[in-house]
Design a protein that fits this description.
This protein has 291 residues and is an alpha+beta fold. The protein folds into two domains: 72 residues, no CATH class; 206 residues, no CATH class. The protein contains twelve helices and six strands. A four-stranded antiparallel sheet has the order 3-4-5-6. Strands 1-2 form a two-stranded parallel ribbon. Strand 3 and strand 4 form a beta hairpin. It starts with a helix and ends with a helix.
Length: 291
């Protein structure tokens, strides 16, 4: 953007020690829109004062966040919000310049490698074993403990790069591939866990599931490792946490709810004083897209 007299004047006031002045200046810069970001980046490169650089970084972040909020609402209001698109929006919070095309290419390579090994004669378990073998053995995807000191473990682009993620991010990658391959696996609402379930049904009939779909689930999958387990294992877990296994825990989660969970968990990475504003922003996004 061409640097007008007004923009130049605003930039000269960014280092004003009066917080009220800085707030007024910030709001005006934000109102100009994301076209001003290259100007701010140039200003940052030519500013030796670290405290002023931090103010400029915050302004750039606020501009990216405003655009990202709008993108989330466009995504949320689609008839069938796509899980991959939602996961990439979460990644853009931390990496505004995310290479979306590269993520899509990486996912497509995985999809094709799995698809080549599938056929219509495979049982549900055999289908799942093909997907799991390629994802965890061929691509060497690793599952990590849920660690809020490692924000990258929550982001789809970094999971694809490092071939490691926690149960939530690995599970989202697993679900994206299942959706592309028409494998009827969905996340379910097991307390304090992110568990996948294989439903006995035809693709595209999710709205025809009974209110208690537990008998339509053939088996369960731990997305951290790809390990398959049975309802008896689930029963044991419910007994251990002293919670009755009601039907609500076995209904498939929508893509919107999965992305909302990702935002809520990712937010916990920023509960320290320095980045508390990121925690607030992520929780705000989660609330805005909430069902």
């Amino acid at each position: 953007m061409e640097e007008t007299r007004e923009i130049s004047a605003l930039f000269h006031l960014i280092d004003d020690p009066d917080d009220e002045v800085f707030t007024t200046v910030s709001d005006r810069i934000i109102s100009i829109g994301s076209n001003i970001i290259p100007n701010l980046e140039h200003l940052w490169e030519n500013t030796p004062d670290e405290s002023v650089q931090e103010r400029i970084e915050l302004l750039i972040h606020r501009l990216h966040f405003r655009d990202l909020s709008d993108e989330f609402m466009v995504w949320r209001n689609q008839p069938e919000p796509d899980l991959l698109a939602g996961a990439m929006l979460v990644a853009k919070f931390q990496y505004p310049d995310l290479n979306v095309d590269q993520v899509i290419r990486d996912i497509e390579k995985m999809r094709r490698n799995i698809w080549l090994e599938l056929n219509s004669y495979l049982t549900a378990l055999e289908q799942t074993n093909v997907l799991t073998t390629i994802l965890y053995n061929y691509y060497h995807l690793k599952g990590t403990e849920l660690n809020y000191e490692q924000p990258n473990d929550f982001l789809i682009n970094k999971v694809l790069d490092a071939k490691k993620g926690n149960s939530l991010s690995n599970g989202i990658l697993y679900l994206i591939l299942c959706d592309l391959l028409d494998i009827p696996i969905r996340a379910i609402n097991i307390p304090k866990q992110f568990v996948l379930a294989y439903f006995d049904m035809e693709p595209g009939q999710w709205n025809q599931l009974p209110s208690n779909p537990i008998h339509r689930i053939q088996f369960y999958i731990d997305p951290a490792s790809g390990q398959v387990f049975t309802y008896k294992d689930v029963e044991t877990y419910f007994r251990r946490i002293a919670v009755p296994p009601t039907s609500a825990y076995f209904r498939p989660l929508s893509n919107v709810r999965v992305v909302q969970m990702l935002l809520e968990e990712f937010a916990k990475c920023f509960e320290n004083d320095k980045h508390l504003y990121k925690h607030r922003e992520l929780m705000e996004l989660a609330e805005r897209i909430g069902e």
